[in-house]
Design brief:
165 residues; alpha+beta; 5 strands; 53% helix
Length: 165
């Protein structure tokens, strides 16, 4: 009789502890679901705002031309802005990237020049209407001439629309 009572108590204890774990996991799922629902409602409230932004972007962003043409355009722009500041460039083309209906023409360059001119060049590159971004860069002092800096691994991207209007 005592063994049966111990088995019933032990079984009850196991069942109740499992039920507690199940309830906890259900509560966590319920919380995550309510959080996702709240986020979805907020995004739906902002739908018009994001639609207007998308329309503006579609009207201002150029369509992606052929890869060669896009690569030529990005390098010409980089080279012209560098020449204005008197900088010398070494170039290397990179694979285009695709993100959310946009494709980038990408060039990796290395430049050497005075810090002020290098920073002015980087600033001139990133005009808002040009859809140019700088993904990465490394800036270091030139060990041979301390009045100059070296910009290496400078990854410049010009973004184009890949989907038609």
């Amino acid at each position: 009789m005592m063994v049966v009572i111990m088995l019933i108590i032990g079984g009850g204890w196991i069942v109740f502890s499992q039920m507690g774990k199940w309830r906890k996991s259900i509560d966590e799922r319920d919380f995550k679901l309510s959080l996702r629902k709240t986020e979805a409602e907020e995004l739906l409230k902002q739908k018009e705002f994001w639609n207007l932004r998308s329309e503006w972007l579609n009207s201002k962003l150029e369509v992606y031309p052929s890869r060669n043409e896009a690569d030529d355009k990005i390098y010409e722009l980089v080279e012209q802005t560098a020449k204005k500041q008197g900088l010398n460039l070494l170039r290397q083309l990179a694979e285009p990237e695709e993100v959310g209906g946009m494709t980038s023409a990408t060039v990796i360059v290395e430049a050497k020049g005075p810090l002020e001119k290098v920073l002015r060049w980087l600033y001139d590159l990133q005009k808002p209407a040009a859809f140019i971004s700088i993904k990465s860069l490394a800036l270091k002092n030139n060990p041979e001439d301390t009045s100059l800096v070296i910009v290496s691994d400078l990854k410049i991207q010009k973004w184009y629309r890949t989907t038609p209007k």
